[in-house]
Amino acid sequence: MEAKKRIFSGMRPTGRLHLGNYLGALQNWVRLQDEYDCIYAVVDWHALTTGYEDTSQIRDNVREMVLDWLAAGLDPERSVLMVQSHVKQHAELHLLLSMVTPLGWVERVPTYKEQLRELAGREIATYGFLGYPVLQAADILAYKAQYVPVGEDQVPHVELTREIARRFNHYFGPVLPEPEVLLAQVKVLPGIDGRKMSKSYGNEIPMTASPEEIQRQVLNMVTDPARIRRHDPGHPDVCVAHVFYQAIASEMAGTVAEECKNAAVGCVECKKRLAGLVEEFIAPLRERRERYASQPGLVREILDDGANRARKLAEATLQEVREAMRLW
User: What digits encode the pLDDT tens for the residues 232-254?
Assistant: First the structure.
């Protein structure tokens, strides 16, 4: 039987995830387990690049996020679930790759200048922040991953990884494969106010929200601002609730849109119905999370096992890298 091709992907530990995280990435990760040899990492070192001044929440955030991974359906028997800092080979390969990566390559990464602008006023212009794309390349190349599932905004990062692997191979021989992008069909879910869904905005619906949280957030969703009276025809294309119907109950979205346009249903009634659908969507995830969370030490056990499996794979790559570079 032909061996499955390998995938690597990671998330920064931000704590509990929201529905945007689930539909935008995690749901796809779960599907990929059936077809690929998957390695999924909590990239805690990456979290330090923009949050080094306060690390008090990292450990709790790792646990909370991994519980959400398990709730979504990631299976530690079928995928390697691990924490980046538990596999020191990531750091060693990062160091070695940094020796051959031109400074201009990392300076031109689009997200570097974007984040400098977005986080203006915070001291993030550090060596680690500038070099994090090289660490990202090391994360991928340590496992000789053939594919990296990303949205279009992350394609430049994978292309940089390919360039770094190509340059390394030019100097030291064909050791590191050039990974390919596996473009994900990302479902973009806005927050309840229409902006990007984010905990920092307080506009999120947690991935495993309680029925009370769901009801409160859905009823606060922004709908058509021009629809003032119940009998006014609505415009579903500007309604946040309609985007949610499309994302989690697509078979109903067309009917709901027509009801809105014809003023057959009011916004409050429409959102109450949506809240019920969101609860149906979330309930299995919440129940699975509670089951995992009730087992003390389970997350640590899963991550320890994942790190042991990951170290063997990464160390095999590092042995080849050291030999190619003539290191003792």
Answer: 888 999 999 999 999 999 999 99
